[in-house]
Design a protein that fits this description.
heterotrimer, A mainly alpha (244), B mainly alpha (228), C alpha/beta (214), A: 244 residues, mainly alpha, 6 helices, 72% helix, globular, C: 214 residues, Rossmann fold, 6-stranded mixed β-sheet, 4-stranded antiparallel β-sheet
């Protein structure tokens, strides 16, 4: 395996640490919700995580379309990076939602339209990442995952509508509006700070993950070329969510 | 100078693929003797696990039918993908058949097999769960739309995964989340009829899904064949 | 013959499989009436060269056209029905009979099933037409592939190791296929490591080594 020279960018780590600390301090110092108490602090991670889940999904799909158009591997790596970060934050949003729901509603899970949609999206992401592991041929991998990405763009809005219609026809959505009265201004500001910080964290993670993806591709190329022609099966694909 | 006949039109090419796929199914019997019994036994296992009292079974019967059709129906759409060899793919490519016609042909054959699958499992559900079908006007439309949507989705996912590792396990993972509009469309259309409401919006949803999948499949057929 | 008089025109073509370079700077021109033999050791790139010409393997660089059609263009499948390619493993459906396999190809070419029957007769398999492919010997499957090419009458014949695992009668079949195609103004490319047999057929020969045509 050839060791390729490269400079590790350090700033994304610093950005992530600062933004993370920022969110932590803000969400811990704001006064707790009158009704929910300390539990309301989960919201400062849950809401931004859910926002990133959707943002990352959108970026993956956009990057897939761009790859099909430009045939530039940088778009393929952006799609991959965003998908992996998306899986992480989707899982985080769902997990925190469950932790919050159990003491609040008495159940881990409820068939809210948004919750159902987010969980379906989680599996679309997993499918996308699993599809990427089925071949080590960079061209084939990029083209096929991009086509699936675009297919998901076409289908996810229909999943979205079907789930929303399904819920609104059978269950009044007010049942799932836990906030009740409008939020305190300080809480709204803290939430906005958290969303902004998380977006910055997402951008920093994207940089690191794209950098890593480029190195992974280089290693794959080096592996395949150094030992002469290697059958596709001989090289095992890297794990699903390493590195991010 | 080729002594071959005239290049067949699009529809004739589609029919070539349909005939091939149905003949292969007739010879191998994979759907009839493997997937169908598997679906039927699944319908038999559910009451064993959750209880056999009549009202419960009657209530969950239609839902179970659709879940099993969606999950096991995918296996019908991908039945030949994993076993296909490079030499077979080369042979088909060199027949000069339009990849879009191949996609439509494969989807059509899977659609026909899925209709048979649905019919048999529907009868099994009626018998085992004591379900009375409702909406005789809408029911066939819903069944046909579900079969076509699933056939298109499965064929498309199968051609995306194609030659990759663990294709048979991966396609159902890709298809299941994206089949949600079909599942909800089918169950809710029939539920709406039971409650005396209009099922139009659900039928339209299913038709839209089918249409979009057909367009996506036809447009991606050539690029997918080229990156095989 | 329609189009240009050059059937295959490769100029400094390279082929990659993922990151692996399989062919490098390959230049080859095939005109009507040519029977080109290509020799090389295992893994030299013989099969890839043949699949490239058959439009089954996209080029990664260089100029490349078959029947005057640019191989980078999207609709290269239009010329595919004029190509007869026999790879080293038979591309048949095991659960179908030999006749049914041929009938599928006939159907795709707009030919009646009787053509498939006639082709099986020509390769001496009329008695085995209704035998399932997975119940047929490897030799029979190879013959069925020859029958397919006889039936479609291609302008460009591409044979990968055509003489391997064949009895004496079938070897004559290969010769006949090549002669027929060339006589009708087509051309043939044969890759092999069996020099003697191919030398007697070929109008010129090339050597392929480490992905480069010499």
């Amino acid at each position: 395996m050839t060791s390729t020279q490269h400079r590790t960018t350090v700033w994304p780590w610093i950005v992530m640490a600062v933004a993370g600390l920022h969110t932590f301090v803000a969400s811990m110092t704001v006064s707790p919700d009158v009704v929910q108490g300390q539990l309301s602090r989960i919201m400062y991670v849950h809401v931004p995580a859910a926002w990133l889940a959707y943002l990352a999904f959108g970026v993956t799909m956009f990057a897939s379309a761009m790859y099909l158009w430009k045939k530039d591997f940088r778009w393929d790596r952006r799609a991959l990076a965003s998908a992996e970060i998306g899986v992480l934050f989707t899982a985080l949003a769902i997990g925190l939602g469950m932790i919050w729901a159990k003491p609040t509603w008495g159940v881990w899970w409820t068939w809210d339209a948004r919750l159902t949609l987010t969980s379906i999206m989680f599996f679309v992401y997993l499918g996308y990442l699993a599809l990427r592991r089925t071949t080590d041929n960079l061209d084939v991998r990029a083209a096929r995952s991009a086509i699936f990405g675009v297919l998901a763009v076409v289908q996810v809005p229909l999943v979205h509508f079907s789930v929303i219609w399904w819920r609104t026809l059978h269950q009044p959505p007010t049942l799932l509006n836990p906030e009740g009265p409008a939020m305190d201004t300080a809480m709204v500001i803290t939430l906005l700070i958290a969303v902004a910080s998380f977006t910055v964290i997402y951008v920093a993670m994207m940089f690191k993950r794209i950098e890593l993806a480029r190195l992974e591709d280089e290693v794959l190329v080096a592996d395949q070329t150094s030992s002469g022609p290697v059958a596709g099966q001989a090289v095992t694909a890297p794990g699903l969510t390493k590195g991010s | 100078m080729t002594d071959a006949g005239a290049t067949p039109g699009f529809f004739a090419q589609v029919m070539t693929i349909v005939r091939r796929d149905l003949l292969r199914e007739r010879r191998s019997g994979e759907v009839l003797w493997v997937t169908l019994p598997f679906g039927a036994i699944a319908l038999l296992l559910v009451p064993l696990a959750i209880g056999t009292d009549a009202p419960t079974l009657q209530r969950i019967g239609p839902g179970m039918f659709w879940v099993i059709v969606m999950l096991f129906g995918v296996l019908i759409a991908i039945r030949q993908t994993s076993a296909e060899t490079q030499a077979q793919r080369d042979m088909v490519a060199l027949t000069g058949l339009d990849p879009a016609a191949i996609f439509v042909g494969r989807s059509t054959a899977s659609f026909l097999l899925l209709v048979v699958f649905q019919t048999v499992l529907g009868a099994v559900t009626i018998v085992l769960y004591n379900v009375t079908p409702t909406g005789w006007a809408v029911l066939p439309v819903v069944l046909l739309l579900a079969a076509s949507g699933l056939a298109l989705l499965g064929t498309l996912a199968a051609s995306i995964v194609s030659t990759g590792r663990s294709a048979t396990a991966l396609v159902p993972l890709l298809v299941a989340p994206l089949s949600v509009p079909l599942l909800l469309g089918a169950t809710q259309a029939l539920e709406a009829i039971r409650l005396g409401r209009s099922s139009l919006v659900w039928v339209l949803l299913m038709a839209t899904v089918g249409l979009l999948l057909a367009v996506a499949g036809i447009l991606s057929a050539r690029p997918l064949q080229e990156t095989a | 013959m329609s189009g240009s008089t050059t059937l295959v025109d490769l100029e400094k073509v390279s082929v990659r499989a993922g990151a692996v370079r399989i062919l490098e700077d390959v230049s080859l021109t095939v005109h009507p009436g040519d029977a080109v033999g290509v020799f090389g050791a295992n893994g030299a790139g013989k099969t890839t060269l043949l699949r490239l010409i058959a439009t089954l393997q996209p080029p990664a660089g260089g100029r490349c056209s078959v029947f005057g059609a640019d191989m980078y263009a999207a609709d290269r499948f239009d010329i595919r029905r004029r190509i007869g390619y026999i790879g080293h493993t038979p591309g048949l459906y095991p659960e179908l009979t030999l006749l049914e396999n041929l009938a599928f190809v006939a159907d795709a070419h707009g030919l009646p099933e009787s053509e498939a029957r006639r082709a099986l007769e020509l390769v001496g398999l009329s008695g085995a037409a209704d035998r399932r492919t997975d119940h047929s010997s490897h030799g029979m499957q190879r013959r069925t592939e020859f029958a397919r090419v006889l039936m479609t009458g291609p302008d460009l014949l591409l044979l990968d190791e055509p003489h391997s695992a064949l009895d004496a009668d079938a070897v004559d079949l290969v010769d006949e296929l090549v002669h027929r195609t060339v006589e009708r103004g087509g051309a043939a490319v044969l890759v092999s490591h069996d020099r003697d047999r191919v030398n007697s057929l070929a109008t010129r020969t090339h050597e392929i080594k480490d992905g480069t045509l010499l």
